[in-house]
Design goal:
Blueprint lengths: L1 H19 L1 H4 L14 E5 L2 E10 L7 E10 L5 E8 L9 E8 L3 E5 L8 E3 L8 E8 L5 E9 L47
Parallel strand pairs: 2-9
Antiparallel strand pairs: 1-2, 2-3, 3-6, 3-7, 4-5, 4-8, 8-9
């Protein structure tokens, strides 16, 4: 009986040692950082780019797209994130357009749909299913080129609300029609109605 108890304890101890040894040889996958959604990420010093993706407005042409991204500023100072992308717009410099995005200190800034937070990239070549090159740089940290996945908002229902708002159609301003006002005519010896004479 004692032998069986000793054997059971020895077996339990060997199993405990063997199973706990897995952590020494195999890294824990739950500690690895990864992008949990369809977007991609990058680190720019203390600025973290997470889940960056481009949502087009459908039709397969990909000439407009909403840049959806979360930007985390780990510092106690506000910074500017420079974003540059290829474009065939008439005002593009060397085929590229760039702009600055303010990121407050110790914050997470997320761009999405809506007039205030939406960033629409115009005049681009980004068909759905492709990777669109976006260059990002913040502060003194070296910049990096992020290959952002392009998704079609009309194909994926979960991204339908993130597609760029339709471009406003210019409404022609009507030319005002001038209506001439007739000059009152007077007959000799009469005064126009409503005229006051001094007498």
């Amino acid at each position: 009986m004692k032998l069986r108890a000793v054997a059971t304890i020895a077996l339990a101890a060997s199993l405990a040692v063997g199973l706990s040894g897995c952590n020494f040889f195999s890294p824990q996958r739950t500690l690895e950082k990864y992008d949990p959604s369809d977007g991609v990420g990058a680190n720019l010093g203390d600025i973290e780019i997470r889940n960056a993706l481009l949502v087009t407005d459908g039709g397969g042409e990909g000439e407009r797209g909403t840049l959806v991204v979360s930007i985390t500023n780990l510092t106690d100072q506000a910074t500017q994130l420079r974003i540059e992308y290829p474009s065939f717009a008439s005002d593009a410099v060397n085929g590229k357009v760039s702009f600055q995005l303010g990121v407050p200190a110790k914050s997470i800034t997320t761009t999405s749909a809506g007039d205030s937070g939406q960033i629409v990239l115009e005049d681009i070549d980004a068909p759905a299913g492709s990777l669109f090159r976006v260059y990002m740089q913040a502060g003194d940290a070296p910049g990096t080129e992020v290959r952002v996945p392009v998704l079609d908002g009309s194909t994926f229902n979960e991204y339908a609300t993130l597609a760029p708002s339709p471009s406003p159609t210019p409404t022609p301003t009507p030319t005002p029609t001038l209506t001439p006002t007739p000059i009152p005519t007077t007959t000799a010896g009469t005064e126009p109605e409503g005229t006051v004479t001094n007498g």
